[in-house]
Every structure is written in structure tokens, then in C-alpha cells.
Amino acid sequence: MTPEPEQNAAAAAGAAPLAAGAKAGSKPPYGVPVWRTGKPDAFLAASVDVARAAVEGIAPAEQVGRHLAAKSEGDRLVTHLFESLVPGYGGWQWYAVLTRNSRSKSVTVDELGLLPSDDSILAPEWVPWAERVRPEDAQQEDTAETPSGEAAADDDDSEDLSAQDSPSADAAAEQAD
Question: How far apart are CA 117 and CA 90, in angstroms?
């Protein structure tokens, strides 16, 4: 059997056709996930409850927020993203990767975890100290000064004792002369 004319043209060009938006010879950076564009599997995209239940299997339910997105990563492979409510992890997202066999209605959980988003990686914009100070901060300083004021009174008593010791030291020095 002879190849089709379109296949001959591609073979003559010596390269496979490029994906939309891809540059010739370009590769994504190592370690950066490539989100495939396209329509996600409708059955997997609708399986938000399965994805949420899987994430709640590794984290308390109060740390899993609202559903953010369902992204396609290939044929019958969808990643669900949920908002993270874990203290100290603002901007992070829980993820659950779901898959299924061809023509099957049984969903399988492939992977679960917590990912940083673009907002969580960058430090917040710098704010000058004078603008960062709040009225509550000044109140905390006032209460902190009260115990140290009592300590200062104790220090005055110790200075009085050392002053009493010093005349005897002066008298001993005069006797030596």
C-alpha cells in the first residue's frame, strides 16, 4: 500500500507537524508541568465529589476549600484543583488526578497532593515599616514596658546595696595608706 499524499509531504519535510503554539525545537523547562489544552473528559470533569473525597482522605475536611478547576492532562486524565485552607499555606492548592479506562464509568484516583500557585511563590509587595505598624502593636509595647518598669525598681535597690559596700572599700583603702 502506498502512503497518502499528505504523509509524503510531511515525510519530505523531515518533521512531524507541530502542536498549535509550539516553536520548532522548543522544550518546556524541566520540572514544570505542561497543562495540555483541550476539552477534559466530561465524565472525569464531573467527578468533583470523587476528587474531593480523595483529597479529604489525606487532609481534614476543613482544610479543603472550594473547587477551583478541572484541567485536562491527556486522554481520560483530569486534574481537579481545590483551594487550600491550611494555615500558613495561603495560595496553595490541593490536587487530585483522576483517570478511567476506555468506555468505563469507574473512576480511579492516580495522585493526590498540595501544590503552590503563582500567588504563593512570590513574596508580597514590600510595605514600609511606618505603614505596617498597627494600633495593636503599640498596645503590646505598652504592656511589655510595665514588667520591665518593675525590674528597674529592683535594679535601684541593688545599686543602693553596692553604694553601701563602697564606703567600706574606701575606708579599707585609707587604712592601707
Answer: 9
